[in-house]
Amino acid sequence: MKQETNPFPKTKLQWLWENMKGCRGIYFVGMAGTVVYNILQLTVPYFSGKIVDLFLTGENARENLSTHRDLFYQLILAMVLFTLLRCVIVYGVCMIYEHVSQTVLYRVRNYLYDKIQRQDMTFYSTYRTGDLMTRLTGDLDAIRHMVAWIIRMVIESFSLFAAAAIFFLYTNWKMALCLLVIAPFVFWIIYLFRNKVAPMHALLREKLSQMNTCAQENISGNRVVKAFAREDYEIEKFDKANRDFCETNKATAMVWLKFFPYVETIANLMPLVMLGVGGVFLIKGQLTMGEYVAFSGLIWAIANPMRQMGNIMNEFQRFSAASRKVMELYYSEPKIKDHEDAKEHPDRFDGKIEFKNVSFQYEDGDLPVLHNISFTVNPGETVAIMGETGCGKTSLINLIPRFYEPTEGKVLIDGTPVENLRLHDLRRHIGLATQDVLLYSDTIEGNIAYGDGSIKINDVVKFARYSSASDFIAKMPEGYDTIVGERGVGLSGGQKQRISLARALAIRPSILILDDTTSAVDMETEKQIQHSLKELDFPCTKVIIAQRISTTRDADRIVVLRDGYIEESGTHEELLAKKGYYYELVKLQTGLDEL
Ligand code: DUT
Ligand code: MG
Asked: Which CATH code for domain 345-428+542-595?
């Protein structure tokens, strides 16, 4: 089979080892303990063999029983003590594996969560939520399983096999060779099995991710499902994903079932060889009865690791498929991140925004969505951005907090290109109310204070008043302590927009960006908001995307976009005088034929 090239800087096991930092020493103790307790397994058959030879079947058995009775008791006691010791070691070893595996799981999960948090917008539009959740849960569990179980089983099987093989060879090498000659066949079968089962686990992991994605999308989109009465369709869709996963699981199990009879036959051949060859050796006097008993008592230590190997390989392939997905995330780097020489800017911005010949195209898009955009907004000014749906307004404002980078040209704040500023400094001074409002499952106060945890309740109320939200909040059963559900279920679209506006204002931003934030608000409320925005008690440059003339008419400048180009720009009066797109829009919205 063609070996896959490893796209990561480390192999899977090296990566795992790296993440075991701090517990490697104790893990070694666990592995050593595993070897020791498996070697101790040999003591019982060994002492049994001795007892048989000395006190049951040997030449002087009867005599030994009367003269060396002490030795007889000592051998029995040794068997009991070694068994007890073995139990204690197994207990300790289990604790170690559990501790280390949970530590690794905790560490990697936190690291991944951190990684996901710091990713850019392109990442979020590439990965599906259900798939990311699968990586953080199922895939990570496969990695925990590797540390807690698979490695332990590998050591257990190999140490048991090796210890038994050495014991056999030491006791009677001819008999041992007759038994061990079969072993290489099992290794060969397991190798064939590995090649067959590896792609099955990769597929299985994909099916699990698809099923989780289906459930996640359905749960978070439940309102759409209900609105279109598509419950049956969604149930059917999930059923298919579930069935696919189930069938793939069965097919994976079937792979082992194909190989299982061969391994099992070989494992079962062992006692037969023991019986036949051992019998001949016994008759010829080349094997004592005690040795025969010890061999018989230990034959499982050769056969069981062979049986176990299929299971181990199966689990190892599951780990392999899962760790690939986890490592992909682990080593992923956002394209948009702080440049090494990025400037620190802990203070507020003056708020000058410049677009210089900016063009932009989405990575997965076929055509540019913005072409050669240039305009300047001076500190404290308000610029309104207008244009028909899909013309690139949201794309344009997304370039200011550097959610995306322009393909050409530059966006500058206070004369510094945004890519030269630290992302944290840049974004914490920008208040953004996005087009799709997402509120957290938290109180209204918690939602408004999201960007600044230290804000006082008086200020929360003040910003709620600025955004004309205080009236409806006061009417809520628990006022500012009212919990708004996931995505703010229980609030109207306009109410959510106003809380989102208060949240953007609450950080006292140097630059405020509103993306259609008052679209679901009535004209009267909108007017109040307009008024409040002019009265803010901190300096602020405002970029407002809006469709209504009532929102844009007072702006210092209006930029009209069309298919990603600036169609026209100027004040309300200037644009009216131009009698272009804006003029037509005003006529349409006011219902007048002539202005
Ligand atoms: N687009 C993408 N990928 C995205 C987002 C948008 O390819 O992740 C495309 C869709 C559209 C163009 O970019 O053709 C501009 O989209 P934008 O969201 O900027 O349009 P808008 O002016 O904000 O439209 P609306 O008024 O509907 O919000
Ligand atoms: Mg938009």
From this structure: 3.40.50.300
